Inverse folding.
């Protein structure tokens, strides 16, 4: 009976957690040695998606919104830079890298930004976990009446195990100082059990911006 209660409790807790939306965790961070936090005049948020402009817009807009709420001036890139400029034939590859770099830096200059926050999805996984079954048994006296025997037997039968599935989205985010054209901060994160693109964007952007400020990479 005790294990049955624990089993049911676990299901309730799981349903409550999942109903609260996605959770984002920071797995690792790197900061350029000797870097001193500075206030950027304007940061462009750049989500690298090859063929999903909608996802790019949703993610960039949410991160920009979070940065502005924290007093950091930021703009999205999707309305200023199209992937067609680098990949006009839509092959998924940049055929002329040198020319691509020139196009990219011209766009950055035209935006008037001195910082770039580049976001990319590195992996998406679905993991299944098996929760083993439970059983509760103690010796009973054979003189036990039918009614008590039946009730106690029902409470002690084996409870089957079950599978739970977790969805994981891994992001890599890098902050660049465009005046020096160098990476100053990088963070690897995972967003767990998102229910929608909006859910991913909300959880990821909040955690990312919070981390950038707490690690004193950005100054408001």
């Amino acid at each position: 009976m005790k294990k049955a209660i624990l089993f049911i409790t676990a299901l309730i807790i799981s349903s409550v957690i999942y109903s609260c939306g996605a959770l984002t965790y920071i797995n690792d961070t790197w900061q350029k040695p000797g870097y001193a936090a500075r206030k950027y005049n304007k940061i462009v948020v750049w989500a690298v998606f090859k063929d999903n402009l909608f996802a790019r817009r949703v993610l960039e807009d949410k991160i920009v919104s979070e940065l502005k709420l924290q007093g950091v001036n930021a703009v999205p890139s999707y309305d200023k830079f199209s992937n067609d400029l680098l990949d006009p034939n839509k092959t998924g590859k940049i055929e002329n890298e040198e020319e691509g770099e020139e196009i990219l830096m011209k766009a950055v200059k035209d935006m008037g930004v001195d910082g770039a926050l580049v976001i990319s999805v590195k992996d998406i996984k679905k993991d299944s976990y098996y929760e083993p079954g439970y059983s509760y048994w103690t010796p009973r006296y054979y003189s036990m009446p039918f009614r008590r025997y039946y009730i106690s037997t029902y409470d002690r039968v084996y409870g089957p195990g079950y599978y739970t599935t977790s969805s994981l989205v891994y992001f890599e985010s890098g902050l660049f100082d465009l005046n020096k054209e160098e990476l100053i901060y990088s963070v690897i994160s995972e967003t767990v059990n998102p229910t929608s693109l909006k859910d991913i964007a909300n959880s990821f952007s909040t955690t990312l911006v919070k981390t950038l400020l707490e690690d004193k990479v950005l100054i408001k």
Notes: The helical segments are 2-19, 53-69, 97-111, 146-156, 197-214.
